[in-house]
Amino acid sequence: MFRSVARSAAGKHLLRRGYSTESVPDRKVAVLGAAGGIGQPLSLLMKLNPLVSRLALYDIANTPGVAADVSHINSRSEVTGYVGEEQLGQALEGCDVVIIPAGVPRKPGMTRDDLFNINAGIVKGLCSAIAKYCPNALVNMISNPVNSTVPIAAEVFKKAGTYDERKLFGVTTLDVVRAKTFYAGKAKVNVADVNVPVVGGHAGITILPLFSQATPKANLPEDEIKALTKRTQDGGTEVVEAKAGKGSATLSMAYAGAIFADACLKGLNGVPDVVECSFVQSTVTELPFFASKVRLGKSGVEEVLGLGPLSEYEKQGLESLKPELKASIEKGINFANKS
């Protein structure tokens, strides 16, 4: 049953856009933080992806067990587990895509900002290793707060002389996944047909779903649009509270991370018109990093797309989010440069 579900659901999504399983390049993907709450289901989903030929699972503990478990799945990729800093280099060597869900999760009453000091240090160390062992890999940053960890990564890469803005991504796909799900429920349309761009950042009011651009068009009243926006912004908190202190959004985040990594792999392999929202270096606004639609290709970001027409409500939301997002970006840059 699981096999049929995995192949019909994950498989169909991952094999879209004319991909053929024949003549696919070898691609190595690493998951850093693979034994954690996001890392384990993300490792499972990446094992199911036929674009992956080698899957490297790294964490500071418990990775051999996760790797052994996942390796028994009868899919294309060969799985290797790496544990501890002394094995990090081996995990990273030859990688095409590195996914970073490493860090501690949020707990009730904890804001994304509370996570900063712990996760920022973890990210800084991992990115230093990426700069050394796989400087040309596409880096998918999941570790929160993404609004700060992406700028931290950029500064680490700049210091190492390896920074390429086309290859660094903040994974905001979960905001898109939530916006699609919530919109489909209100609009009473098939969620598989829904598209909703989400721009800005990846925390609270910096998350700005553009429901005015949602398809299929539903013409929802403004009060429902505001409620959908609020729910999308607070989606992480909704899950933290529902889990009553025993976890955060791990499963949906793993799914979103797998979807974005798949898009990166398709882009690397030359599949045309691969477009996803992501938090990247940008000139769309005056801020140095911003989430918007991005066209992916063989070098990573091929084009950062504009915002398109915004409703008055969205224009207000855009101006409201800028100060908070600016502060988060600066906080990351300052952290990276203080030592």
Automatic annotation (TrEMBL):
EC code: 1.1.1.37
Positions of the Lactate/malate dehydrogenase N-terminal domain: 28-170
Domain of life, per lineage: Eukaryota
Domain Lactate/malate dehydrogenase C-terminal: 172-335
Compartment(s) where it occurs, according to its Swiss-Prot or TrEMBL record: Mitochondrion matrix
Catalysed conversion reaction: (S)-malate + NAD(+) = oxaloacetate + NADH + H(+)
Keyword set, alphabetical order: Mitochondrion, NAD, Oxidoreductase, Transit peptide, Tricarboxylic acid cycle
InterPro entries linked: L-lactate/malate_DH, Lactate/malate_DH_C, Lactate/malate_DH_N, Lactate_DH/Glyco_Ohase_4_C, Malate_DH_AS, Malate_DH_type1, NAD(P)-bd_dom_sf
CDD domains: MDH_glyoxysomal_mitochondrial
Quaternary structure, from the entry: Homodimer.
Family that this chain belongs to: Belongs to the LDH/MDH superfamily. MDH type 1 family.
Name of the protein in question: Malate dehydrogenase
Upper taxonomic lineage: Eukaryota, Viridiplantae, Streptophyta, Embryophyta, Tracheophyta
